[in-house]
User: Fold these one by one.
Assistant:
Number 1:
Amino acid sequence: MSYAIEISHFSYSRTGNDVMVTFSTSPADRYVRSDVVVSRLIAGETLVVPVRGGLGDLASIYTFNPAGTTIWAALDRPKDLDELTRLLEQEYEVSGSDARADVLLFLNEMRAAGLVAVLGGDGNETAAPETSQNRVGG
């Protein structure tokens, strides 16, 4: 089985530069799908549409390949970084460091898009503190 995290973001109303945002993580953090998205599995890929104002935001559609789909499926219930890392290690037989790096990439992108929520050690959703921003694209 091939392994590589691929996330495609189709945005039909782009203006300005893309911004990559990274967030700090805590070992107590647990991640879960946001409740403001609709997702469907089609031909082994997951399509995710954010819901804004009660309607699907068809101007922003995300697709995940099988590795991204594996993480997304696991996020139907809160999971911590270690659980998600072990899942990729077992499913795709990759090193722990590669799996962790890919999970962090996935979580950062999904948090920045508002598709994944973070639950602190107390089980309540936490604000996502920014630690850095890097301009990507032009």
Note: The helical segments are 66-74, 81-92, 96-113.
Number 2:
Amino acid sequence: MDGNKTEHRPVDGEKNREREKEIVFFIDSEKFETDQATLTVRTLLVDYAKEDPIQTTLALRHGNDIKKYTNIDESVAMKNGMKFIIFHNTPTPVS
């Protein structure tokens, strides 16, 4: 019977499940979101931080530990709340 057909519509619970897939991370205190489980160091530097990977190094801060990513093609397994920092490789001029 045509009157018994039901249409599938997203309910609030489904929208929340989709939202839970978003991974929130920070680069130099700026908040970003992704739905990708892994991102390359290059992608994090170029697409998110808008930095030149030749002149900068990405590092992950976890508590007091800092892990520098020297290979820009390395894949990073993304987790909620990750905090990255950018090191500029160019010398700072002294005036």
Note: Residues 12-20 form the longest helix (9 residues).
